[in-house]
Amino acid sequence: MYILGIWDGHDAGAALIDGDRIVYAANEERFTKRKLELRFPYNSIKAALDYEKIQPADIEHIAFSTTELTKTLERLFPQMKESYYAMRRRKSLKPRFESARHKLKYNLTSIGVLPSNTFVSKSVVERHLKSMGFANFKLHVVDHHTAHAATAAFTAPFKKSLVITMDGLGDGKSGSISILDNGKLERQLAIRARDSVGIFYEQVTNIVGMRELEDEGKVMAMADYSYPFPYEENRLANFFSVVGTTINAKYSPSQQYDMLQRIAWQMPREQFAYMAQQVLENVLIKFASNAMDRYGIGDVAFAGGLFANVKANMRVRGLEQLKHWSVFPHMGDGGLALGSAMQVNYMLNGVTNYPLTAYLGNEYSQEETEKILRADRSLLIEPQTSHQQAEHAAELIADDKYLLWFQGRMEYGPRALGNRSILASPSSEYVKEKLNLYVKRREWYQPFAPSMLQEDIGRILEYDGKGNDRFMTSAYQVKEEAKEQARSVVHVDGSARPQMVGNENPLYSELLKVIKKKTGYGMVLNTSFNLHGLPIVMTPEDALYMMKVTKTRHMFINGLFVTNRTGV
What is 366-564's CATH superfamily? Predict the structure, then answer.
């Protein structure tokens, strides 16, 4: 039984499952080239069907999430979310009364689901689907945090687990605790939208001049460039209190926004970011610790946008009560399509566990890739075996060259994990600066991340053995003796956000093993194959465009080694 999941909001996308198999999952931004696309996911729905070679008539069940008031209004009046998208991404001049517009948004989104919302949302979504040829299907609505919980619970390697979700808000809630036990997922409690730590961090992101719902990771990185001070001296410390498994915000979202603006006026933004990061970490640590104590479960699965904060995840992972942990790799709203499909599959068929891989998107054959590339006469193209690619790429990386690496199926989620990556030496400051200035074109304080062989984790990281992080979902402290070899992927605080590579990606694993023979460590600098502010590339055409725009010299793509003769 095929079940299609869709999400038509922030970071829209589609996912297709069949039994306990995730057939396909991708987000609309990769098709439209608009980062964090919010339009209806026509392209990703079509791509899911095309990948499995099925038709709309083959789909009996379709699931979607979130029918709160604001989401329903946006479905009825798409120009509303287009206007917000342009403002949020700073694609338009700063609007008049910008602060008032933000307050209105916070007030409306806190309302949650009204009685007529679900009916109206279903009607709009059905209309879109029928225009694509879908018929005789049942449309299911899944609560926002139920969808997040499904992704965390059903992809974690635990038979019994505590499931914690936290984000900005959705369907009137900002978080939840559930328990998965004996094939049954049950919610225990929910956190009100008013008490959202996610909204707090979103507001901080906006106030320091960045794009909310997009640049929160920059705030996290910038926080480490403040001078440190104890939590007791943090002027934001009283914004939230945690009592047991209850989170209470001192102010309403609108009041909080005013207070944050007034406080931020008095200090450098690095210090303000540090204060916000301290609050986030403190709240999450107390809440997770109290939840584990209350329910007596030490295996914990997490989802929701707050768990994109790898520094906070590192602190939570260090809790003594936590035995094993798992963060769903597409933890934000971009994972709602898959979560909705999983929840419906659970309700209909009782499926509660899925083998999870990062590689769930589009792929392109060597033949069609070569046909596209041969049209550009400035390229030299050489077919290579997998072994030849690994050996050649390792030589270039060891020689302080960076390269574009495009292989197999596109990754699902926000991280490049060895199929749509830019790779370089983890020890070269020169290459790091070149990538930042001329290729990625991003802020200097953002760290790069490493991919490393599982067998080398203990040599490089202060590793606790609580979970194998294949998806770059947490930071770890780097051992002193490995910092020189890892200096281009270590943040100023001595941490790194690693991808731990096993046998799930044979070609990537082979590359790391060859690099280990040359350098002593199976590790590379791995950053996403995209220009700053644009989505990760999907197609060979996308890859070629970026190669030419950035004047990159070397690319390995689907069994081909490509040299750009106009590159530098």
Answer: Carbamoyltransferase, C-terminal domain (3.90.870.20)
